[in-house]
Amino acid sequence: MPDAPNTALIAVNLGTPDAPTASAVRRYLAEFLHDHRVVQLTRWLWCPLLHFLILPLRGPRAAEKYAQIWLPEGSPLAVYTRRLANALQMRLPQWRVADAMRYGQPSLPAVLRQLREQGVRRLVVLPLYPQYSTTTTASVTDVLARDAQGFDVVLIEDYAVDPGWVAAVADSIRLWRQRNGTGEHLLFSYHGLPQRIADGGDPYPQRCEASTRAIAAALDLREDQWTLSYQSRFGKEKWLEPATDRTLDALAARGLRQVDVVCPGFAVDCLETLEEIGIGLVERFSEHGGQLRYIPCLNDAPAHADALVSLVQRTVGPVA
Q1: Which helix (H) or strand (E) holds 22?
Q2: pLDDT classification of 320: cutoffs 50, 70, 90
Q3: Which CB contacts under 8 angstroms, 24+ apart, belong to 241-247?
Q4: pTM > 0.85
Q5: Which stretches within 92-243 are classed as H helix?
Q6: Contacts of 88 (CB under 8 A, 6+ apart)
Q7: How many CA atoms lie within 13 A of 92 on its CB side?
Q8: Do residues 101 and 178 lie in contact, with contact meaning Cβ atoms separated by under 8 Å?
Q9: Residue 154 pairs with which residues in a beta bridge?
């Protein structure tokens, strides 16, 4: 066996601030919201809005939210992504396994440079977005097109209905409900997307529905036992519907008092799951007299790492 493996797996996540402070959040959001894949407005219009209105207002507010979920080791998204990469490395000792962020640190371009210096020539890139979207996975593709010259690259674009991943999510829901009891309804909440992007051909809504139906089928759920919704709206334009917050209001109006919610669009827990769902919407649902119970993401669970290694093997062939 060569001293330095020439094949690497990069698990790429979206990104996170380095600290739960207004300045760190502004730096992160500036990079994130400058990406034309994320915000498709013309730069001459968007940049002044971003730097003189959105970042000064949103930075401190978001920092307060991050502070509520921050772990001793750092941001939950960074911590769980790093732990997941370590679990993948244990299962792939003959490869190099690295975690990278599309925005923030460790940056994907920096990881690519480091792997090149280490003699890696073959890359398997796994964006940790189960459902493909031009706003997420395609942005990773942009970086690879610019910075992965000379590598032999295999990109895993989507695993929305991958059997191993579906089974891992379904099993995690089943086990959680065995331990905590089964709620009256199961809500599948995904990150939202402006409707115009979906209307332009982005397949994300169809991929979310495919994931939901596959997981519901694995759980033997009837149609009336689950609902799909979209969270994290931003701005005033129309986003994918139904919205998670309004869906919960409707479930409460139907008399449901105990609802379980799971977020299969997120590989690991982050601000959108732990704060938006686990704090904000839990409080909102409680105002209706109900109990909203959040089921955690797969994070670094062994079943998650096993499913992703199997996905890699089915994509590139057996891992020796």
Answers
A1: helix 22-34
A2: low
A3: 241/195, 243/192, 244/187, 244/189, 244/277, 244/281, 245/281, 245/284, 247/187
A4: yes
A5: 108-117, 137-147, 163-180, 195-199, 204-218
A6: 9, 11, 97, 305, 308, 309
A7: 29
A8: no
A9: 124
